[in-house]
Amino acid sequence: MNRKELEQYIQETYVAQIDYPWVKYPSHEVFRHENNKKWFALAMDIPKSKLSISGNDTMSVVNVKCDKILVPSLWERDGIFPAYHMSKEHWITIALDGSVPNDTIKMLLDMSFEATKNKRK
């Protein structure tokens, strides 16, 4: 899944708003719940070096919220990293370069969407 496919999947699957909150980083997209405005995904292009990958070029990634019990085991998979610029306890960074199967990305997006939605009282 590439970044364009990710955006299309999110728009077709979830009731969400797309936000570009940083003037300095106009390509960083935040996907928010419409009702509570909480983020469930952050897509961006970052230097590979930020993920401890060699090279000076950039990589498209998405950050998603995840159950903290699963986070360490997910880091063992190809294309999944400790969260860039987010809590590494609750968030992960997923490479959008084809190294992570689409079904896995969709499952992790679903988990993030559920983890950040309004809780019933």
Automatic annotation (TrEMBL):
Report the GO molecular function annotations: DNA binding
Question: What stretches pass through the bilayer?
Answer: none
Which UniProt keywords are given for this protein, alphabetically ordered? DNA-binding
Read off the InterPro entries from this record: YjbR, YjbR/MT2646/Rv2570-like
What is the protein's name according to its record? MmcQ/YjbR family DNA-binding protein
